[in-house]
Amino acid sequence: MIKHLLDITDLDRDGIERILETAANLQPDGGAIRKYPALRNRTVVNLFYESSTRTRTSFELAAKRLSADVVNFAVSGSAVEKGESLKDTAQTIMAMGVDAIVIRHKASGAPHRLAQWVDAHVINAGDGMHQHPTQALLDLFTIRQHFPSFEGLRVAIVGDVTHSRVARSDVQALATMGAEVTLVGPPTLIPPQAEHWGVTVTTDLDAVLPKADVVYLLRMQLERQKAGYVPSLREYSRLWGLDSARASMLSDEALVMHPGPMNRGVEISAEVAELPRSLIVDQVTNGIKVRMALLYLMLGSPDGSAEGAKANG
Amino acid sequence: MRPGRERERLEAARVGLRIGAGFSFFHLPSPLRVAAVGEASPLSGKPKAAPMDAGDLSRALARIAHEILERNKGAEHLVLVGLLSRGEIIAQRLAERIADIEGVKVPTGSLDIGLYRDDIGLRAPAELKTDHIPPIDDKIVVLVDDVLYTGRSVRAALDALMDVGRPKAVQLAVLVDRGHRELPIRADYVGKNIPTAHGEEIVVRVAEADGEDAVLVAEREES
Are B127 and A26 within 8 A, CB to CB? Predict the structure, then answer.
């Protein structure tokens, strides 16, 4: 298994398959939640420089269900507020003896820097506008529960792609697995280089919906309106929000996904969020399984083993 | 007990002592470590002996089914839990035998010990399999595996069982006991004692998974 997960492209198709497979076998659906002794005597630090409830809690539960010790390193109220650098914080944490650091940081690339400084495994839990690889894994896992193969699967990712680390990781993960991705949104929120990602780009959501197998809605951050990317959230919602009328254009099997937290009434209407085809709650449940699988495969491997996935570049 | 079995047991102990001198479990090449905790492994070397054929296997399972019923005075409160993958198949077969003899369908389950192993981090992570453990509180659980070797799988399985409930008793049934225990564990029901050297491997083949019923001894190929 790979030493670090910094970028979803650290994993090739086999590596992704292995994680999804392991996650699927971890906890049977409907069965009682079990706690396993697999990672006893290992310590995982959650180092979150940005606020996050679901990702941090998800990592914490995943590690605890494998019996690892978990330390939540709260940035507010810590030495970081006194001006400690990331490097010094990393060295402090390493001096305490930890096996893995789960990091979220507002700066793109912070996990890469961290990985150069520490011996521990580093898992990127979201860095700036760059990557959120475990989100991509749990999204793949959730899709896999409904579609056996990604090959040729049509996935529409809708909204603010430019500022979305989820979109970047998901596009790459879906491409690795052979899905066909279409990015939909206002031209101001689709990065110009998206043309080179091997995706189709369009502004017309209504044309995409009838053919889509999965509609993945991105969170429309309220600050974007202030920054002038969209004239108004109301207009955004009218053109790119998924409401009941639009949802009725979807095929019967099509899925609706969202990384959360949702802005109900902006990118997704309250009614659509409650539809059986909306898998937002499943995504949260699956996040724990996928992170358990990742922690088990990473921390359960002998040091220096690199089978099953590409080595980190 | 048949006189031959006692002799086999002594033979196994003697071989184990000789080969086991200065022997460190964790420094073995990885294929051996895989099998050392009793995982069913594909045949890597050439089979040099076939101590059990389909008929032997069937008779051994029939005898074990009778022994389980005799010892527990019937099939009441019994649950058979097989270690994945071949232990589960053998557990199913034992349940069928018990149904034939006693007319009672004993609940069966499966157990994956991947997350309970004592060598996590020392070898490539084991592939996990979905297991299903039926309710075991106040039941007599018969753990079923194909080969009993170091005893480490059984240790892991006992921990897994205790995590999901509190059985009244746990017993152990194995098709083959090949000796070389590293933990204080013994089987209550044994299909056949087959003395082996560490460099050998026991391969249990069952029709459901491998297309035939047989127990083979092979020389382990050095990798």
Answer: no
What is residue B42's predicted lDDT score, i.e. its pLDDT?
57
Give the CATH number, domain containing residue A57.
3.40.50.1370
Each residue's pLDDT tens digit, A81-116 = 677 889 999 999 999 999 999 999 999 999 999 999
Q: What's the distance, CA A281 to chain centroid?
A: 14
Q: Which residues of A touch B (CB under 8 A)?
A: 1, 21-22, 24-26, 28, 31-32, 34-39, 66, 296-297, 299-302, 305, 307
> Which residues, listed in sequence order, are joined to residue A80 by a DSSP beta bridge?
none
Domain that holds residue A202: 147-278
CATH number of the CATH domain containing B135: 3.40.50.2020
Could you report the predicted ipTM of this complex, rounded to two decimals? 0.86
Amino acid (1-letter code) at residue A282:
D
* Contact between B124 and A39 using a beta-carbon 8 Å cutoff: no
The DSSP bridge pattern shows strands B47-52 and A100-105 to be unpaired
**Has residue A295 been placed in a domain?**
yes
Query: Is 50 exceeded by the pLDDT of residue B31?
Result: no
A247 in the same domain as A158: yes
Residue A201 falls inside a structural domain: yes
DSSP line for A190-209: S-GGGGGGT-EEES-HHHHG
> Are residues A156 and A233 both part of a single domain?
yes
Domain count, chain B: 1
Angle between the A133-144 and A54-65 helix axes, to the nearest 10 degrees?
70
Q: Are residues A152 and A273 in the same domain?
A: yes
If you average pLDDT over every residue of chain B, what do you get? 84
Domain, as residue range, for B80: 3-219
In a domain, A238, yes or no: yes
A126 and A232 both lie in a single domain: no
**A128 and A165 fall within a common domain:** no
Looking at the fold, whether A291 and A272 belong to one and the same domain comes out as no
Write out chain B residues lying below 8 Å of A22, CB-based.
127-128
When divided into structural domains, chain A yields a total of 2
Nearest chain B residue to A37 by CA: give it. B116
Structure tokens at A262: 């949702």
Q: Enumerate long-range contacts of B95-99, CB under 8 Å, 24 or more apart.
A: B97/B61, B97/B62, B97/B64, B97/B65, B98/B65, B98/B68, B98/B69
Q: Is there a single domain that holds both residue A126 and residue A34? A: yes
**Measured between CB atoms, does B127 come within 8 Å of chain A?**
yes
Q: Do A168 and A201 lie in a common domain?
A: yes
Say if residue B30's pLDDT is above 80.
no
A12-55 pLDDT, tens digit each: 999 999 999 999 998 766 667 889 999 999 999 999 998 888 99
